[in-house]
Amino acid sequence: MNRRYRKTIIAGNWKMNKTATETKAFAEELKPLMSRAKWCDVVICVPFVNIPAALKAFKDTRITIGAENVHFEDHGAYTGEVSAAMLKDLGVKYVIIGHSERRQYWNDNDIIVNKKVHAAIDAGLYPIICVGESLEQRELGVTMELIDLQVKTALAGVPAEKMRHVVIAYEPLWAIGTGRTATAEQANEVNEEIRIIIRKLYGARVARSVTIQYGGSMNANNAQELLAQPDVDGGLIGGASLKPADFTAIINAANQE
Ligand code: PEP
Prior knowledge:
Layout: E1 9-13, H1 20-30, E2 41-46, H2 51-57, E3 63-67, H3 84-90, E4 94-97, H4 100-105, H5 110-123, E5 126-131, H6 135-140, H7 143-155, E6 167-170, H8 184-202, H9 204-209, E7 211-215, H10 223-227, E8 234-237, H11 244-253
Parallel strand pairs: 1-2, 1-8, 2-3, 3-4, 4-5, 5-6, 6-7, 7-8
Phosphoenolpyruvate binds next to strand 8.
């Protein structure tokens, strides 16, 4: 973390978990635990249908609500899809784009990710862009090349002045939902590389100010060490964000003075 230059953001990704009723119960349990969240922003990204319940449940808190996906078109014949304008209109602030599960099961490739990033930014949403390598790619030694391609393609055509709305999440596929976390050094090494790519694209001032999270089995036990790294500006958290006590422990780790 480097609070002098950029925001620390702890974001939960609930994936396809919790009903609207469970969302309300989660909020009631989390709220009294949240007092120390002074130094970081807290976001919870929920399934589309839970967004109204989440907005209501977290109304008087510092927690902002995000979506887990968005379609890149404004409107039209795209049955089952949700546009950026629809999310914005509800009061959503963030949207996860290019999560590895979307890339794997719905073929959200880098070009689609780029279109979604533009749709989100144009509607005034803050994209959380996920990038990351598979275990095979890491073992082949192509992690940095892959990250380079994913980041550059995702940001193609995004002007510098919009970069203050953009969050990047480095999420190695082999660490997501596996219980196997990247070491703090591995996470920082890739996050630092992402910042170098952004510096080459947009210059030092923009690069310094962009929040770059780590995601992949971050939990109450490893959060502090990961967040102590200079280029790890927060976390995108799946499993541990579903339990109020665990999520609070991660928020507290981001609030160490
Ligand atoms: C994620 O879904 O983005 C994620 C990091 O999941 P988990 O924390 O469960 O590994």
